[in-house]
From TrEMBL:
Stated name of the protein: Carbohydrate porin
Key words, A-Z: Signal
GO molecular function, a single term: porin activity
Keyword NADP tagged: no
Coiled coil segments of this chain: none
Amino acid sequence: MSLYLLRALTVAGLVSGAGRAVAQGGVTPPASTFPARQPAAASAQQPVHYDHDASQKWSVHFQQTVIQQWHNNFTPRYAGDFSLQAREQAKLSLTTTAFIGRKLWKGAAVYFNPEVAGGSGLSGATGIGGAPNGETFRIGDPAPQVYLARLYLRQLWALSQETEQFEDDNNQVAGPRPKRYLALNVGKFSIADYFDQNNYSHDPRTQFFNWSLMSAGGWDYPANTRGYTVGAVLEYVAPAFALRGGLSAMPTDANGPVLDFHYGKAQAITLEVTKPYTLGGHPGTVRLLGFRNQAAMGNYNLAVRTAGLAGPDITAVRAERRTKYGAVLNAEQEITPNVGIFGRLSYNDGHNETWAFTEIDHSLSLGVTSAGTRWRRPTDRLGIAAVANGLSPEHRAYLATGGSGFILGDGRLDYGLEYIGEVYYSIDFPRYHAALSPDYQIIFNPGYNTSRVSGPIHVVALRVHVEF
């Protein structure tokens, strides 16, 4: 057992009390009829960064997540610079985050999240469009690094007299919140803190592990290598619906660590409408997201047309102010107080290179989660999901002629959809604020290649998550 895993288990033994769910990017879903760690369908008032008038001034919390992951050996028919490796040792990832919040004046709070991350994904998080560990990044050095994850100001203006009370939680200062409000968030954060929320499938620390289940695969969401950006998000939230719009920075290079603050030539615009509803007495939510990214992207067709003997090079045909458009349809529905289903359908035009998230141009995911009430483990959670990922014709042609992106590059491409199935079981230890989650994924056509591997790839993992 690794040193990181031992350390996480040691921390778990030192804390006590009831557990809480932690959503992707540190956003905590609202309380619901689901037991701990499994919220029911979201209202229009998600995400929940609450910071309103109350006697409490501070909020301080902590999380640590360790994932050990392994895949079976296989014999590839060919390989490129960014192929999934045929044989490799199990890979470990670690993230540790402090969530510190301070109320400032009426309706305002500041949030500060220092974070430590280390380890590596399978094959350095390359070779699969839907990478199997959402806690890993495409960073060469596996040594743990300290960095600033979030530092942002949230100002809220009440638009109604009615309020509801919220407890202290991650990036959430306890207190009442108006049921209808306008909020402005400015600073460094993850854009997924506000958009593409899904209570059943959004957080690799507590839910599904796969990249294309933690967020919509076709949404090339703006972020640096570690998943964060700098910008502003404006929210209008009411009980009947919510509207959100964001302007945020893109990285200076594809999947790069440095953000480009020249917003006039490189930026991401994200818009989303959220509509809650009730079906048969059970809550549900549907979200429609649209995005436009602009950066110095390369064009796939141009790279193929100008290819030399070494093959096409997307970096050689980059030009300022190229764009990528796309949309996401995201839905969730409670079936019973202990069972919920979800799905996402996402698409981008795929003319220009993937710039920030992963090499998926369209994706469909469906799944179901259940609390363990029927087998007398009410705070445990079981999740089962399936994903189909695909590429645009331009993207396929580029890879087929030997091109590489920052995730994919087998040297050739015999195209087919990439299919992924995942099942996880979260064993909750509320007394220790901890959960232990075994996970299994089966991947057909990794990297969209139908002929490189003769059979599916089997990925098994174990996750330890601690929070208080």
